[in-house]
Amino acid sequence: MIYRVYVIQNRAEKVYTGLSDVERRITQHNIGMSKWSHGKGPWKLVWQSADKNLSDARKLELLLKRQREAMDFID
């Protein structure tokens, strides 16, 4: 199966990073099916990776989340 890592953002500039079928997941985020993003939308896609296998997608997702956490710490 092919995966993509994606980054979505809402009007309050909250950012969520995930991996999956991007279009399906954005729809789920926007209709409240995701626990973390429920009630915080609407969400829009700001970036997505090329197709990856699951292992590479998970590594990239973790790297992006760690980088964002480090930036939050600096702010």
Labels describing this entry:
3-stranded antiparallel β-sheet; 23% strand
Secondary-structure topology with pairs:
Elements lengths: L3 E6 L5 E6 L1 H9 L13 E5 L5 H21 L1
Antiparallel strand pairs: 1-2, 1-3
Q: What Rg is obtained from the alpha carbons, in whole angstroms?
A: 12 Å
Task: Provide the helix percentage.
Answer: 40-55%
N- to C-terminal distance: 37 Å
Would you tell me the overall average pLDDT?
90
String of helices and strands = EEHEH
Secondary structural class: alpha+beta
Overall outline:
globular
Total of DSSP H or I helical runs spanning 4+ residues? 2
For the sheet with most strands, the description reads:
3 strands, antiparallel
Count the beta strands. 3
Low-confidence stretches: none
Strand order of the largest sheet: 2-1-3
Number of domains: 1
How much of the polypeptide forms β-strand, as a percent range? 15-25%
